[in-house]
Design goal:
The protein is an all-alpha fold and 268 residues long. The protein has eight helices and no strands.
């Protein structure tokens, strides 16, 4: 009876050895939290870059077909929209490259999982979101310039919500600093930071097709390019804020682990 009981207990191990040759167990046992996480993270971003590229191209082509088949679209608008469509199709290439290159940077060495997760991973995604937004804004500004030249509203699509799952990371540094100011009773600085982060120049398509260019339309085009620079500025400010907050929290945790009070002792 004891022998039968032991055979029942050993049955899963026997099947595992004979059928799967223990490959899955060996992979789990040999998994390295350093090299393994870096390798898989790198692969995830490589796959993500392809998915985003295909999604963008499909969305742009679908939107362009809707514009060209719309009876409200003029002949001049369709002619100019050929150029904007080509620009938008091209924008998917640098955006996919940004995702792939930034993601591959996470495949390098790192100093532990805590640093990897709360510093490298977060800052890399902030860079991806900011740089992708900057590329999209620049292409949008170029399309707006063509709309100004043709003096009609051309096809101008956006990048969509491909990064909705990680978009909250872009506002994480500013939210953290806002909460810190609130704890220090410096609430008056919160509104200043919010105004700075959300400030953009007016821009938008409002062309009538009368071939009469005016200064207001030119300001709209200029504002679109200024918004690109503003977006990059906010990106680097967010990175600086997050590095500051991470360093502060990291130093505080180190002090908790080994508290010390610096007291100067002078001998008379």
């Amino acid at each position: 009876m004891k022998k039968i009981y032991q055979q029942i207990l050993d049955f899963p191990q026997m099947v595992n050895q004979k059928v799967l040759n223990a490959q899955l167990n060996a992979a789990v046992d040999n998994f390295d939290s350093q090299n393994g996480v870096r390798s898989y993270t790198k692969s995830i971003y490589q796959i993500l870059s392809i998915v985003v590229f295909i999604s963008m191209e499909v969305a742009i082509i679908h939107g362009a077909m809707g514009y060209f088949t719309d009876t409200a679209s003029t002949g001049l608008g369709k002619a100019g929209s050929v150029l904007t469509t080509l620009l938008l199709i091209y924008s998917a290439f640098p955006i996919a490259h940004i995702i792939k290159a930034r993601g591959e940077s996470l495949g390098g060495s790192h100093n532990g999982m805590v640093t990897f997760l709360f510093k490298d991973f977060v800052t890399t995604n902030i860079k991806i979101l900011g740089e992708v937004a900057a590329v999209g804004a620049f292409i949008g500004a170029c399309c707006l310039t063509l709309s100004f030249v043709f003096d009609t509203n051309l096809f101008n699509a956006t990048t969509g919500t491909a990064f909705s799952t990680i978009s909250g990371l872009s506002s994480l540094p500013m939210q953290g600093l806002t909460n810190l100011f609130a704890a220090l009773r410096l609430d008056y600085l919160t509104s200043v930071l919010s105004s700075f982060a959300s400030f953009t120049m007016p821009s938008g398509q409002s062309f009538t097709g009368d071939m009469l260019w005016n200064i207001n339309d030119l300001f709209l085009v200029a504002g679109a390019f200024v918004n690109v620079a503003l977006g990059l500025t906010v990106l680097y400010v967010n990175l600086a804020i997050y590095h500051f907050l991470y360093t502060m929290v990291s130093n505080f945790i180190k002090w908790i682990q080994s508290p010390s009070i610096p007291i100067a002792m002078k001998t008379k």
